Amino acid sequence: MTGTIVESVYGKLSGEKKGNVIVWKGVPYAKPPIGDLRFRAPQPPEPWEEVREATLFGPSAMQASSGIMEFLGNQTDNTSEDCLYLNVWSPAADKRRRPVMVWIHGGAFTAGTGSSQTFDGRSFSSEGDVVVVTFNYRLGALGFLHLGGVGGNDFSGSCNCGILDQIAALQWVQDNIERFGGDPERVTVFGESAGAMSIGVLMAVPKAKGLFHQAILQSGATANVLSSAIAEKVSSRLLAALKIGHGEVDKIRRIPAQQLVDTAALLPAMSLVPVIEGDLLPVHPEQAIAEGATKEIPILIGTNKDEYRLFSFFDPRWKQNDPEEISSIFEHAFGLNWLEISRNLIEGENLNQEIFDKLMTMSLFTSPALKLAELQVKQEAPVWMYRFDWETPVFNGELKACHSLELPFVWNTLSRAGTERLTGNLKERKKLAEEMHHAWIRFARSGNPNTPKLPEWGSYNLEHRPVMIFNRENVLVHDPNSEERKDWGNLMVHLESIR
Questions:
Q1: DSSP characters for 196-207?
Q2: What Enzyme Commission number does this protein have (predicted)?
Q3: Looking at the DSSP assignment, which residues form a beta bridge with residue 360?
Q4: How confident is residue 246, by pLDDT bands cut at 50, 70 and 90?
Q5: Helix H segments across 153-284?
Q6: Worst-scoring range by mean pLDDT, 172-181, 336-345, 467-476?
Q7: If DSSP codes are grouped into helix, strand and coil, which group holds residue 390?
């Protein structure tokens, strides 16, 4: 079937052609996870008989408002508990079997959407002749609240509903994407922040085996999971706030979703993330990958030079420059590790925002990325590393090369309304966007990101540690910030030895 109407496994879908790309929006990949399906694994959608119009995005997942996410362009004007929808961009619904790129959005597992205007797949499809899929998945408490410990079998797996949604979307791709002109045997998952952290989990999940063949992880790796014990403490705290006793957990299926979202927003950041539990994620992702779970998967992984500046920049406490307040920021962020970190890495310097940003960037982003790259290299898997160093001129350059800044470059969506608030409008942006965009396309097509416009990009190894630095001029650098990497690695070994 050609044109804009495609017959999926569940029924016919009518998309919309714009230029040389067709897009199908708001395609259900699972039943609405509402009522008795709240906190349960996603179920296949109900088939339909008439042609279904697929020209409007489906609702995004329920989420609390976030000033930083709004600054990044996240729109929350259309959210619902009924959120399990995906979108497909393709040059044509024919038999060409093009490479497929499946995007997993970020947002700290509590925010974000697959239908952000930044994640418009038109350029990938037209420039790279690839099929692009974006989707929504359950977030926050609705996606990652561990209730199995107190609710029994009826809530088994509730802590990983968001990951199960991602697996269901990838299964939909396997079952349907050939009808949209894609190749189910050449699927690249790519994601940023919590999206990349999700990929780090999916790499270790036995149930996800074979659903993707390559992976791109931007500013996220395999470190952001909780043990069942810690996740149960989080759920107990939330249930207490909702005034739900341990013997009446089923009440949580009937309270308004917005109340659940608003109450969960009071929890500390990153309290609701994937959990090591059961058959889905039996061991820590790093252990599974060290044991060869994904040794056949080529990965492209990297970070931004100043990741944490996005978060510290909007924290008013730094503007007050109160030494006691600044000291408490460090102590709160690093907890029991702060004494050893200050002894080994600070060397008597006055604490300031610059030091904090460097430590947080290394702790949350750079170190986990290096760890995953090293684990894969030891399995002789192909790995390419990058770092995004281009600094935005907005706010007098104070945001630097912050978290999420690379997104409109990767997607080649700099022309989208509002993007200039983050990137500014310098003409040099276009060249960098084209170079990154085509590297991602080349990786999706071949498992290797080298393009004619980039310096030769050698795969990562533990001897030379080559990293592509994306900036006004792209350069390949061996072991950038090697001293910081070694100092942090030595500190981690020391902390393990004294625990």
A1: HHHHHHHTT-GG
A2: 3.1.1.-
A3: none
A4: confident
A5: 161-176, 194-202, 228-241, 257-264
A6: 336-345
A7: coil
Interhelix angle 367-378/482-498, nearest 10 degrees: 90
In our burial notation (b when 16+ CB lie closer than 10 A, e otherwise), range 121-157 reads bbbbbbebbbbbbbbbbbbbbbbbbbbbbbbeeebbb
Fold of the domain spanning 9-297: Rossmann fold (3.40.50)
Neighbours of 217 (CB within 10 A): 29
pLDDT at 347 over 80: no
User: How many beta carbons lie within 10 A of that of residue 194, not counting itself?
Assistant: 26
Q: Please return the burial class of 80, using the count of CB atoms within 10 Å of its CB with bins 0-12, 13-18 and 19+.
A: middle
* Residue 344: per-residue pLDDT: 81
DSSP 273: -
How far CA 187 is from CA of 26, 128, 437, 443, in Å, comes to 21, 14, 17, 11
Instruction: Say if residue 425 is exposed, middle or buried (CB neighbours under 10 Å; 0-12, 13-18, 19+).
Output: exposed
Chain centroid to CA 382:
21
| Residues 6 or more apart in contact with residue 146 via CB below 8 angstroms | 158, 159, 226, 228, 231, 232, 234, 235, 275, 277
Distance (Å, whole) CA 394 – CA 23: 33
- Share of residues in the chain with pLDDT > 70 (%): 99
pLDDT at 2 over 50: no
- Which residues are tagged catalytic? 193, 307, 403
330 token code pair: 């460090």
Q: In degrees rounded to 5, what are phi and psi of residue 64?
A: -80, 155
Residue type, position 307, single letter:
E
8 Å CB contact between 162 and 141: no
Close Cβ partners of 147 (under 8 Å, ≥ 6 residues apart)? 39, 155, 158, 159, 235, 249, 252
Q: Which residue, 197, 190, 187, 192, is CA-closest to 216?
A: 190
Partners of 131 in beta bridges: 100
Distance CA 426, CA 429 (A): 6
Q: What is the pLDDT of residues 8-29, one digit of tens each?
A: 999 999 999 999 999 999 999 9
Note the pLDDT tens digit of each residue in 78-133: 899 999 999 999 999 998 899 999 999 999 999 999 999 999 999 999 999 999 99
pTM: 0.95
